[in-house]
Amino acid sequence: MKQLSTVLKCVLVIAAAVLFGCQPSNKSENNSGTKEAVVGATDYTVAYINTDSLLLKYNYAKALSEKIMGKQEGARADFNEKAKVFQQDAVAFQRKVQNNGFLSLDRAEKEQQRLAKAERDLQELNQRLSNELMVEQETINRQLRDTLVNYLEEYSKAHPYKLILSNTMGDNVLYSAPGVDITNQIVEALNARYTADK
Q1: How do 161-167 and 45-50 pair as beta strands?
Q2: CA 67 from chain center: how many Å?
Q3: How confident is the model over 144-175, as pLDDT tens digits?
Q4: CA distances from residue 1 to 11, 59, 153, 154, 160 in whole angstroms, order as listed
Q5: How far apart are CA 118 and CA 80, in angstroms?
Q6: Which of 101, 126, 177, 188 is least enclosed, having the fewest CB within 10 Å?
Q7: If residue 81 lies in a helix (H) or strand (E), which one and from where to where?
Q8: Is residue 8 part of a domain?
Q9: Quick one: which of 54, 47, 42, 45 has its CA closest to 172?
């Protein structure tokens, strides 16, 4: 029994040696191409861009933001003016009803129907303006993303990055080594291109 135990121990030691001897090292090439996979993993350079900062500092983003803000203010002013006219008409109608200012019940009902239609029109206008602004905002977001992605493809040819992440409000990157945040470099380059294109 003791000899069986000794034999089993020897077999286990030999098996362990064989297993460890088969492990590929970083220095020797394996026929299966494992060295290339290990070296590729260590050369994988990553960076990130703080998207919030980029949008605040990138002049093209600022210009597009000002454009949409101008449209929002114009739409809000237009809606508020029409809402004010409607409110005045509604108050005048209430005053006439209280003072028996309508010559007939039929005229009062027609005025009430006109006001109800004006209110529906006002709600439809509000919805239409909101939809138009939402579509405009989506278009702007797509333009900014396309501009950034196109530039980063060009940027990655001259720099070692194989992966560039987006970090919005600090939600994706919990830790990074110094130099991994390339936001300022990208903003400077994009602003230089935007100024040149202008």
Answers
A1: parallel
A2: 19
A3: 999 999 999 999 888 888 888 888 877 778 78
A4: 15, 83, 69, 72, 63
A5: 14
A6: 177
A7: helix 59-98
A8: no
A9: 47
pLDDT, residue 113, reads 94
48 contacts 176 by C-beta, under 8 angstroms: yes
Side-chain-facing half-sphere of 133: CA atoms under 13 Å: 18
- Domains identified in the chain, total number: 1
> Domain for residue 17, yes or no?
no
Task: Evaluate whether 108 touches 28 at the Cβ level (below 8 Å).
Answer: no
Answer whether 0.85 is exceeded by the pTM.
Answer: no
Domain that holds residue 106: 44-197
Q: In this structure, are residues 50 and 167 in contact, taking their beta carbons and an 8 Å threshold?
A: yes
Task: Give 45's contacts (C-beta < 8 A, 6+ positions apart).
Answer: 160, 161, 162, 163
